[in-house]
Amino acid sequence: MDKLKLIHDMAVDNGSKIVLLVMDGLGGLPMQAGGKTALEAARTPNMDALTARASLGLSDVVAPGFSPGSGPGHMALFGYDPLENLIGRGVLEALGVGFELRPDDVAIRCNFCTIDADGNITDRRAGRIPTDEATKRVELLRQIKIPGVEIFVEPVKEYRFAVVLRGEGLSGDIDDTDPQRTGVPILPVTSRTPAAEKTAEILRQFVAAGEKLLADHAPANAFTLRGVAMDPGLPKFPEVYRMKSAAVAVYPMYKGVSRLVGMDVIVHDAESPAEEFAVVKEYWDKYDFFFVHIKKTDSYGEDGNFEARKKVIEAVDAALPDLLALKPDVLVITGDHSTPAALKRHSWHPVPILLAADTVRNDPATEFGETACLHGSLGHIRHTDIMPLALAHALRLGKYGA
Amino acid sequence: MDKLKLIHDMAVDNGSKIVLLVMDGLGGLPMQAGGKTALEAARTPNMDALTARASLGLSDVVAPGFSPGSGPGHMALFGYDPLENLIGRGVLEALGVGFELRPDDVAIRCNFCTIDADGNITDRRAGRIPTDEATKRVELLRQIKIPGVEIFVEPVKEYRFAVVLRGEGLSGDIDDTDPQRTGVPILPVTSRTPAAEKTAEILRQFVAAGEKLLADHAPANAFTLRGVAMDPGLPKFPEVYRMKSAAVAVYPMYKGVSRLVGMDVIVHDAESPAEEFAVVKEYWDKYDFFFVHIKKTDSYGEDGNFEARKKVIEAVDAALPDLLALKPDVLVITGDHSTPAALKRHSWHPVPILLAADTVRNDPATEFGETACLHGSLGHIRHTDIMPLALAHALRLGKYGA
Fold it and tell me: Are strands B264-265 and B245-248 parallel, antiparallel or unpaired?
């Protein structure tokens, strides 16, 4: 049973409009037991008023106990089973720096490392060299030319960088070369399938040329390859759901994931929630579906900054009337995972969700928060249920079976 | 994992009795935000009193966001995964007019249509001719004889009719002949497997003979074939659950679906809920399990008639003491999907469920309604969970594993 195929077969384009407003890492915890979460502590009169025509609930992104990365979090939000559709790390790394990956490109996440005179690794992260130091070495690697393939090398952060190969007949079926410990050499490049041997040979040449160029540049005098991957070729979001779909995001990673599933990524220079909503307004007539991504709720969660997280939520709430003025048929407000400031990391706690529409079965909640969501009429769902529920409430899904 | 097999292996026949009372389309919405649903607005003292020894809950029939048809709705109620066991449209159409389908019959849903002198379709529904006009043409088609096969032609409604082929070696692996648009000819009959070629050839002869007979009967001067299908050969309900099982239903469709899963369909002339319950009483000693189907809650929902829907629920409640007097060990009251009068259609909203038994973990609910069910001790379940829960509460399921 292919669920996206079933949904595609039931989907109708009735011209209604859906907005999926994602506050990254929205779910939280109180800083002290018995306290409020950032969402509960924030002053959010507009979201609270929305509960009068909304269904609330809690949603597990992947499965209970799983703390999702941004890739699986957004795959699940977009309705793709994150257990079946894991995007390769190389692809995520390239998307994260804004690289415009093409369907046949092979993307690789690379780590600078330190090797000794015998070729054994002494530091798998090259002493965590600062990004500007890494960038100088990336520029050296950009000199490498290999016939028949275009090579892109992009700095990421500290010791991490990304490589993209573009050419004919490439494959992502290549093993990692990081032995995951020190005192041993970097592993040779090996292919997992005969069809990937061409790519493996290109990478062997790239590694050899790179080590020559970096020889005098300790601590980053070598590098490992990880998460070699291609665009997974997912069914395209606008086709699956029969909606012209656009992404309004600020960070490259989220633009990249949206592009990967076939959404139009709107080019803009908005930064604040209010500015992002203004972009939605500008393009309102051109699309049926808008994915709007707010990043800072997650960033401040990772920093452990509860107050700043709360203020971002309040800024979203303050700007919300601009979005509501567009009268979306369905507005979903949720997150791609939880990032409690108390834990300073992505967590497994279910994510609060609010779905506002004229077709909801209302619930007694009068404010949007984790505790109110516990008794919401959406119940306890999975993130892959969000898109079918949004489409259903927009009356965009016909009957299943006669 | 074959769940029905697991349940069968755990099932014991302890002589206890279960009644599954299905009010079709029971789940609803208020007509105005903040109002009550039909179930909540109805005066239901008997159901409300039952909550003292009941577990309540909400149930998704297929999956969140999916609005099920009657076929999948009842498959799920009976414990068959509706995503794996979709009954063909031809079979449902034949069952819907009360045709007693046999396991090897091939059933086809047909639409009268209009073709022009060149054989191109000008109207895919033959101007929606009235049922009596269609019936005259059905009688013409009944003249067709093809050696080696028995052919049944049954009027359904307006331009729709059903054809059933009975004979040896038939198959349902036949493509639809409806091109889904006008201005083009009806598609030729094609088989999807070599084994279906015999059936395809019979249908080609039937179509050719039919078009000859209908030539002067525009607007219905031709017809298309859709949803060619056979009885899916499901494991039989009474065997799976080890219960002598009977269906008490008024409408042919629900009798048909019950027969398809191997229940005995009781012949009766009851119409009202009280009369249907009297039939249950009459046969009480003969069966372990009764499926009782109330249709009108759905019909009035589709009509948008909230008040009439409420009155049907009240009539069920008023008659309920007759059913309770039989002292079923487990009584489940639920629906096969939601049909809110506010939407005039089947919807995706979870369906309220009440399970009364001496073995329940009770909850604080004091009335049966969607909001009370939100906090029920059954939680938020799937329809395929209902039969295992009913059996468990009747102490008809042993331990899973040692």
Answer: parallel
